[in-house]
Design brief:
5-stranded antiparallel beta sheet, elongated, 23% helix, 139 residues, 8 strands, 3-stranded antiparallel beta sheet, 3 helices, Jelly Rolls, alpha+beta
Length: 139
């Protein structure tokens, strides 16, 4: 079975957000797959997807603090500034973190580790709603 669906996330504040339930809740067809894959593709250039800690929100806070320190806004050599001082740093963070995930499906559920969850990295102050293209493949 192949199935593709676009998922629209509500606007989030700048930072990292656990969105596993948003993704799995939107994909009722995943329950039909005993063995397969879920591919997620962020349809934006200033937000990212990653798989990381799902229990302690301090991990998401610390990740955002790390990236704010390593990729600050308003660097004097940035030329791409028409969309605001947080846009070019957001593009850099999205490239570093990545905009795609491929996850295993086992018996209708994501086959993730105990402490793993899907994160949205919102790298803009006001990024707005975000779209993710989800593709399911399996039997």
């Amino acid at each position: 079975m192949w199935y593709r669906q676009q998922i629209t996330l509500k606007p989030y504040t700048r930072g990292f957000h656990l969105i596993t339930s948003d993704i799995t809740g939107a994909l009722s067809r995943m329950k039909e797959i005993s063995t397969g894959l879920l591919h997620l593709q962020m349809l934006h250039t200033s937000a990212s997807l990653t798989l990381n800690e799902n229990a302690d929100p301090d991990v998401r806070h610390d990740m955002e603090a790390f990236f704010r320190d390593r990729v600050p806004g308003d660097l004097p050599y940035f030329r791409h500034t028409l969309e605001g001082p947080d846009d070019m740093p957001a593009h850099i963070k999205a490239s570093l973190m990545g905009t795609e995930l491929t996850l295993a499906i086992d018996n209708g559920r994501l086959a993730t580790g105990t402490w793993q969850g899907i994160w949205l990295g919102e790298h803009r102050e006001n990024g707005g709603s975000r779209r993710i293209l989800a593709t399911l493949f399996g039997e």
